[in-house]
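G., before I forget:
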Amino acid sequence: MLTILFDGVAYGMLLFVLGIGLCVTLGLMNFINLAHGAFAMAGGYLTIVLMNRYGISYYWGLPAAFVFSAALGAILERTLYVHLYNKSHLDQTLFSIGLVFMSMAIVDYFMGANQQTINLPPALDGRINVLGASVGIFRIFTIVICGLLTIALQFIIAKTRFGSRLRAAVDDGRVARGLGINVTTIFALTFAFGSGLAGLGGALSIGIISIDPTFPLKYMIYFLIVISVGGTTTITGPFYASLLLGVADVAGKYYVPEIGGFIIYTIMVAVLILRPQGLFTKGATR
Amino acid sequence: MRNRILSGLAAGAFALAAVPALAQEVVKVGLILPMTGQQASTGRQLEAGAKAFLAQRGNMVAGKRVEIVVKDDQGVADISKRLAQELVVNDKVAFLGGFGLTPIAMAVGPVATQAKVPAIIMTAATSAVVPQSPFFVRAGRTMPQMTFPIADWAAKNGIKSAVTLVSDYAPGIDAEKFFKQRFEEAGGKVLDSLRAPLASPEFSPFLQKAKDLKPDALFLFVPSGQGATLMKQVIDRDFAGSKIRVIATGDVTDDDLLNDMGDSVLGMITSHDYSADHNSPENKAFVEIFRKVNNNMRPNMMAVAAFDGMELIFRSLEATKGDTNGQKLVDAMRGLKWMSPRGPMEIDAQTREAIPPMYIRKVERKNGELYNVEFQDAGSIKDPTHTHTK
């Protein structure tokens, strides 16, 4: 049964890394970026191209995916997103969903519509026994990376000067500007960082699943569930929410396969009824 | 001199006769395919298969020029129905074809019936499709045709117990049902039947459950084009180490995806009617022209179904001498037999179902690429579900 727990935690961690960038832009910058999955897809495809066409190792693929998606995020933020910060949420939604469709068409054109996948390096492939349960090595690898990322993120936002400036810029941009904080740069950096995380999530996810051009839409539902259950005001909220959803999904499908697919949605509905501001949010909604 | 005048006159007369013929004698074939969305790879293969047919055969038949009109339904049934209506009313197509999923074929059925336009089912594999309209003719194959051979093979090769894992939609449930039926008739036992949501990217809980039940074999079915994710997680779960054989219908080791799956799928046993590796002159010619006109793509079972669908269209037009009356065309397709790249094909004269040849195949490496290599001919099986006769 430990195997199920491990699988669930790994799946949850994956959801978290994929969704955390969205949490950063939505919660911290108050910007609805539905095109988040497109950055994850970019990271995934970059890793596939690097590995399958140029024979570069997967370990280099991960940071490359982060850098590539972050750069893509930075460019798009400077050219496109920056014009939408002050627009209504509806405008932001329409704009970013448009980006999703464009990204899908572009990837389809260059990479083809079929599912693509990679072969993991031998060190990450296979299974080992942990406390009597058989566990995939790659899933442990995912858990470790995502765990480290969570700690680092929490530290940056809560403890560093950049984090406090970011929080100030979000809470009241005008006052922060008045205090000499460069809000524009902070937002650009944050956006790029969030996109980079999505790219990393994409690169990690191709170790477990395969990728095709519908990836941003297929996963959008999961990102949004994580965000709505976890709330967007903290990093820890979506983190616990991802774990809860990952474990509930995997355990549900194992023990009650007849209704397994619905469990994740049932949890979301229950949370939205009982705590519409999110399960792990302290204050009220904005 | 006289000769030249005569031939000049003849040429002039020929030109005069040919002009009106060219202007009106176009037969349009409307293909409704999922060119975008989840099933896009299927649509791509279908279109490529039809293109390969025209490249090989030319576009003239019975003095008429065949033209293909491709419409993208994104794999969504209500769009398919609207597109079918547009194709019939605006484009005046003489044939419909394609249909990526069962619900799509079901939605188009009433349009084909009312307009009396033959509709060639190339993909949707549920047995229930063809009885929905007297104008449906199947060029692909049905679920029981694919699952019976692998169930037989399993029962004859020391597999006594099995667990099934299928995508939770009509063809998946068909696959589960027919595998169980056939396997248990042969004395095997299905320990559990698991169904994963169609859109699910995470199969691990289902696979773990299957593994914990310790069957002799795990039977898999997912729609064509989606086998990569499943196989990745199957391999990750190490069934071979637990002495569980993994068997499937050929959709899982789809030619489109197989080569990327890596050596871990080597030796996997599947049943299907088509492998790009099939050893026949017809298939060699098909693969060659298909690769030539489609950017070196490898054809899969969808491509061959579209190719055979076009064959049906051409043969029926030949038989009616170019008459595009829907009823005459459908009647001309009944009982047709020809040599397809898959092997001998036949359309059941009673049920309008395809009767394709079936093979048991094993994944092997050939010329540096992974292929489904056929090692046993499972013969041709009529769809066993049909009681309807017209």
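The radius of gyration of chain A is 19 Å. The mean pLDDT of chain A is 84.

More on Monday.
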